[in-house]
Amino acid sequence: MFYPVIHCIDTRDERAINHALENARIAKEFGADGVFLIGHEICYSFLIDIYEGVRSQAPDLWIGINFLDISYEENWNRISRVAGGCTKLNALWIDGMPKEKLFLSEKIQVFGGVAFKYMDPHLKGENLKTACKEAMKIVDVITTSGDRTGSAPDILKLKSIKKYLGGKVPLALASGVNTDNVLSFIEYVDIFLVASSICESIPSRGEYLVPEKVRELARLIHV
């Protein structure tokens, strides 16, 4: 599966919804399986407005969301209420790993990070094995990454995580994926969350998906 990540803009008006809608349209039209909406420095309530605006225009599109301004360590119940109130939400993504399972609608997948950037990207050996086993009890999809935004992970890391998961839950990769390396990850990764390599930044308008790049990456992932 291939889900482009849309970095939503914080204009507090229709421009933010239109920005997300245009990116969602490109993703769908050029071969992606859905999208994730992420709000960097955006209040969760406005990100919900953006989400609902996209959902109203794309009722059948697979859409996930990531509330970066709500700390799951302190507000797990709050995240549950917020996510549960989003119309037809498909997935909730958090960068880290909570200490307990979040009980949402069975239709909402919860993505949680293991060996994730800026947290514990270099986790390995028995520590990585233990983290994977504990994570499988809590989330529906394990998400990993390279060391930082835009960096690809080591193949051995992906191979190890895949082995520890034992096919029980999917593995998502959330950094460093591009048309040059994606085929080397296919064997180990079930879901690709991609932004940097398929986006361009337009001054004063935000990041936009590049149709040709989305189409080519989708072609390689779905081959």
Biggest sheet overview: 8 strands, parallel, barrel
Relative strand content: 15-25%
SS-based structural class?
alpha/beta
Label the overall shape: globular
What Rg do the Cα atoms give? 16 Å
State the order of secondary-structure elements, H for helix, E for strand.
Answer: EHEHEHEEHEHEHEEEH
**Main sheet: which strands, in order across?**
1-2-3-4-5-6-7-8
Tally of separate helices: 7
First-last Cα distance: 11 Å
* Topology, number of strands: 10
Mean pLDDT: 92
- Unreliable sequence segments: none
Describe the structure.
The chain is of the alpha/beta class. The chain has helices at residues 14-29, 44-57, 72-84, 125-136, 155-165, 182-185, 211-221; strands at residues 2-7, 35-38, 63-66, 91-93, 109-113, 141-144, 171-173, 191-194, 199-202, 206-209. Strands 1-2-3-4-5-6-7-8 form an eight-stranded parallel barrel, surrounded by five helices. The chain has a two-stranded antiparallel ribbon with strand order 9-10. β7 (171-173), α6 and β8 form a beta-alpha-beta unit. α1 (14-29) packs across α2 and α4 (125-136) packs across α5 (155-165). The radius of gyration is 16 Å and the shape is globular. The N and C termini lie close together (11 Å).
Write the topology of this structure:
Blueprint lengths: L1 E6 L6 H16 L5 E4 L5 H14 L5 E4 L5 H13 L6 E3 L15 E5 L11 H12 L4 E4 L10 H11 L5 E3 L8 H4 L5 E4 L4 E4 L3 E4 L1 H11 L2
Parallel strand pairs: 1-2, 1-8, 2-3, 3-4, 4-5, 5-6, 6-7, 7-8
Antiparallel strand pairs: 9-10
